[in-house]
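Predict the assembly for these two chains.
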Amino acid sequence: MKVDLYLTCVNDAMFPRTGQATVRLLERLGCEVRFNPCQTCCGQMHMNTGYREDALVLARKFVREYEHAEAVVMPSGSCAAMVRELYPQAAQWAGDDELLRGVQALESRIFELSEFLVDRLGVTDVGAYYPHRVTYHPTCHAARMLHVGDRPLQLLRNVRGMTLLELEGAEECCGFGGTFAVKNADVSAAMLADKTRHIQDTGAEACTAGDNSCLLHIGGGLHRLRSGVRTVHLAEILASTEEEVFA
Amino acid sequence: MSGLHPKAPFPKAAEASVNQPQLRANLRKVTHTIRAKRAAVVAELPYWEQLRQLGAATKDDSLVNLSDRLLELERNVQARGGQVHWARDAAEAREIVARIALAHGERELIKVKSITSDEIELNQALEEHGIHAIETDLAELIVQLSHDTPSHILVPAIHRNRAEIQALFNAELPGEGGLSDNPQDLAAAARRYLRHKFLTTRMAVSGANFAVAETGTVCVVESEGNGRMCLTLPEVLVSIMGIEKVLDTWEDIAVFMETLPRSSTAERMNPYNSFWSGVTEGDGPQEFHLILLDNGRTHVLADEFGRQTLRCIRCSACLNVCPVYERAGGHAYGSVYPGPIGSILTPQLLGMHDKNANSLPFASSLCGACYEVCPVEINIPQVLIYLRNEGNAHKGPNAESLAMGAARVAMSEGWRWEGALRLARLGQGPLVRQGEISWLPGMLAGWTEVRDLPALPREGFREWWKAREGSRTVDANTQAGPPDIVQDAQNRESPPANVQEGGHPPAGQHGQEGEDHA
């Protein structure tokens, strides 16, 4: 199957390992991975900060560039949710029928990574090896907008050598929320304090999630606390094998 | 809380409240307890999702037919001996209540818990007329006696603990002084005080949870029974109702009798459900006034997308699950409507013209927990996003809008974005120490107050991909710049976006691409 990797702007700028891991993982599972270098950003930051017109420019660009794709895989629940949930709504707000039709035609081919692995490829054991103690934070948009449910956990439970530790208050937001983290820094920090405390309480070496934007936030807090706990994207765990360690 | 107008922007108000340990502890305990209880009683109903849909559809139907429903309600209330008043705004509603009280020579009245009355700042206005309003809901009484303001729709004194209430009652309730902090003793003291008021006061004011147009019936649901006292014992009853509360038929009310108690107090049914239609000779109040309040609601109604906000039945489930509310508390929202619903209702009621209120739609991480529990399916996260746009539309160009515009320009073409990333990697140098950034200027300072930021990697994904593709395909073009776009143009059926978009990439690049296509 031909798969278009939509890296997302955060990974593009900050987390090349996540992109590399996603490519390796998908290729290992028999996919032909393509990367369109014209890609930039889905527009979520603009949309959620109240700059709809800017976001729509990026939405139209996305739909134009991926309308013929067989499957678009994103290592981010938030960006997949943006395309599937908010593009249609924004198109309606703007009265842009062409964009609406375009998104509706494309919607079923947009996948968050765990959805793609479990639903489209039908695998829950990807042959990964990761000998560490890990806790999993379900990110809000993957959980509540995409309803990925326990797909990431199904994948993680099959990782050999790994100890998966349960996180208290896992479903609670980490306090990132894009520009919320800077606009409402105090409340965001209070939310982050609870999240990092729960993560530390698990005794894990690493916290994983399907979204590097949330992990950027959680990891930034853990690092500031000098907690010694690191963050690692789900893709990097799933791509890791005895031969090649990604994170 | 007095009224709708926040005195400060949300971030500033929240800065104070997140640092109050007692408040944080109270909020955490109460919200987590009620969250778990709600989840348990909702799980009892396998058809819960259908109830949510039905509730939303029922409210939507009422809203699009609102003028007809209200006129029908008016006719039927009048036909049963009630009087109906229309109030365009808070001031008109306050004057109507004061006029009725003064006409009867009343200097004291009892109140059923009503956020609508707080919205119009009724108590303060009545005091100016020399009329004292006594709150009879236990939590509202606590708030009133301490000259405080409610911080939760349903649990107005959520920010108080029993020690504080003990001290308050001992100081303020007539004849008390030796009360322990035992909740039963405290409730009994309030009961002694309120019983006397119920039996001696001749006028009551209430809000309304619903009204049924077909019979002119008004409904109040409650847990304590104080409401029932106020609605049945006095001679004169005045009910203030937001115009969005009207429903068509009794059948319409049924769904909310299931969803409201489970969502709000996590009960299967409210202990007290009072319904009355006009007046009945020899039974209950002999004079009934219904005040239909607009106060910005028609403005909300006029907006096709924002309108869903008016479905709200004030259950407060969204407050109890909200991680922002849990940390900031109700007072930070500066309005009688706190939490996620307040963040969309308050600015809209104020016509999106209040600067402080327009900060409320940003008081959310958009985690979506509120939408998940809303019994009338208000898509609060989407309305928040919608209102962020509406609010920004009222502002002129500013640092943020310029930064966003610049980001959009950089992101509108792959090659520009790639260039921007290269520049950022070069430019970050002075900020990086041991691979981390611990201080950022200006708008981004909020981030580095409590978080570090990893430095941008020296080599991004694109460089890795390029090198990898280069080693796979022997192609002279990949060595020419900018090779990534060239590569892509060859691999794809459709030309890359920057050609279609009619942007302005450097001429050399454009030419290069054209040649490749040829």
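Chain B touches chain A through 80 residues (CB under 8 Å). Chain B is about 50% helix and 10% strand.
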